Amino acid sequence: MPVEKRWVVKPQGDSVAVAKLATRLRISPVLANLLVQRGIDTVEKAEKFFKPALSDLHDPFLMKDMDKAVERVERAVANQEKIMVYGDYDVDGCTAVALVYKFLRQIGHKNLIFYIPDRYTEGYGISVKGIDLAARKGVGLIIALDCGIKATEKVVYAKQKGVDFIICDHHLPAEEIPRAVAVLDPKRVDCSYPFDELSGCGVGFKLVQAYAQKHGIPFDEIQGLLDLLVVSIASDIVPLVDENRILAHYGLKSLNREPSKGLLSIIKICGLDKHCITIDDIVFKIGPRINAAGRMRMDENDENASPSGGHAAVELLIEGNERVAEEFGSVIDAYNQDRKSIDRSVTQEAHSYIECNPEMKQLKSTVVYNPRWMKGIVGIVASRLIETYYRPTVVLTMSNGFVTGSARSVPGFDLYQAVESCSDLLENFGGHMYAAGLTMRPENVTEFTRRFNRFVEENIDPQMLIPQVEVDSELLFSDITPQFRKDLGRFQPFGPGNAAPVFATYGVSNHGDAKLVGMECEHLRMDLMQRQKPNTTIQAIAFQQPTHYEWVRSGRPVDVCYQIVENHYRGTVTTQLRIKDIKPVLNR
């Protein structure tokens, strides 16, 4: 039985500002209220929000070390030095590598290789193996993307091998900054760049933008790379505000109008080639397929195997031939199918373990360990367990003689602090408030479990253990007109910092044939009607919410909160409510 959710209605915006925006912009007061809630309380701010402009992108040379980075790339290009483009094995890293690689190739630099470390044998970040390969191949410059901000010793090691580094990262730096030729990271304390929430691919794009700007290359010639960048922005869940909103807006245009051959192959595999691709499509369909390659274990005994699964993802993203791209796309999709099968199996094992240990169910956190689980999917499994138990979760497995794993949190609880409180038991760890990775010796698992659980028990607010839905405002079904939907569409792209609004409508009932759909009848589909206006009915789908099926089917009233989406089915586009939660009306 799922945990009952709390509905938290956001404070409504200042009524004077709402009325003024509604009048001046000719939009519904409900939508004007959404703007004010998001801090957009003047007509000027609203016009900028509704019309993202490339001219509002920040000057890339405002980023610390950008001039040094561009000068070093210029020297490498002029001397036809071999450049290695190096990146992390997740979506952000792979898209970043593909973007910078494609740009260097575009400006005529042919002496290029790329490198993605293997998750299992090398782990996250800059590896000695990658540096050694670069030295053997005669590489003079490594451009590291979405990693490297803490690779102080590795940069020194590379220098001893005659290899320079440019680091493009977006993670929090340590006190000591690596002594690379240039370290581009807007989160550096000494960096005054106006926006510090870029993705790793975003930082790589700023390097490209700076080089193009200095060499008089029109922005139009690099705008085609934004399809890769929006995939990174959506998948890395960075805030969709400021520069990210602009880049995502134009990236979606590029992705929909003329995507690169590699992304087109994934779009077709996902069945997205017949409708307008959104941020949600990237998060749930495109991104996971790219991510899956880096999660899967390669055959370590095959000398001819690709260096990593992520390597295959980059091969796909840089491929210019449509037929070859389709072949790569099929390989990537197969990785994703394997990944889904494995993560379903592991999630079920973890569920069974917890259900067979009643004392675990009474805790305020979850720590599960199985040395047989695949390292690449433990983060996904942690997220799945939170969907059921809704509490801070750590999933551990064995890799290369060490216990390693991923941790995920619930809104409001600082997971990083909980992990850090056990730092003396850990070989290394990293992350942020809501997600972390960690490694320890096998003999420390029991003590880590005890101390992590105790820290959560002593520091978590009990309210954080109850799932909540933030509701923007109440809405009548009769307000959901074609004009309302069109104006709501202007708020896109939705994501962190500009979330798709959630509306609540009270006292509605099923009008028609409610059905349980899905392979395991896990989703509830219905046509809802609001009592105040019986002629207003609207399609709705409640994913993973079969609980209230009998109540809804009987026609008894419910309160619903939901997002308004477009449903594409066999060439027809209809308005649909994506139900976030259902509450039966008992006594009203």
Task: Report on the architecture of this protein.
The protein is of the alpha/beta class and 588 residues long. Helix content is 41%, strand content 20%. The chain has 21 helices and 19 strands. The protein has helices spanning 15-25, 29-37, 43-50, 66-78, 91-106, 128-136, 152-160, 200-214, 220-223, 226-235, 242-257, 261-269, 279-295, 309-318, 322-355, 358-361, 378-389, 415-420, 445-459, 482-489, 549-553; strands at residues 6-9, 82-87, 112-115, 139-145, 164-168, 182-184, 366-369, 393-399, 402-408, 426-431, 435-440, 468-471, 473-474, 503-510, 515-517, 523-530, 537-542, 558-569, 572-584. It has a five-stranded parallel β-sheet, with helices on both faces. A hairpin with a 2-residue loop joins β8 (393-399) and β9. Residues 298-306 have low confidence and may be disordered.
> Based on helices, strands and strand pairing, what is the structural class?
alpha/beta
Q: Strand fraction band? A: 15-25%
Fraction of residues in H or I helices: 40-55%
Number of helical regions: 21
Largest sheet: 5 strands, parallel
Average predicted confidence as pLDDT: 91
Number of strands: 19
Give the structure's gist in a few sentences.
The protein is built from 21 helices and 19 strands. By secondary structure, the protein is of the alpha/beta class.
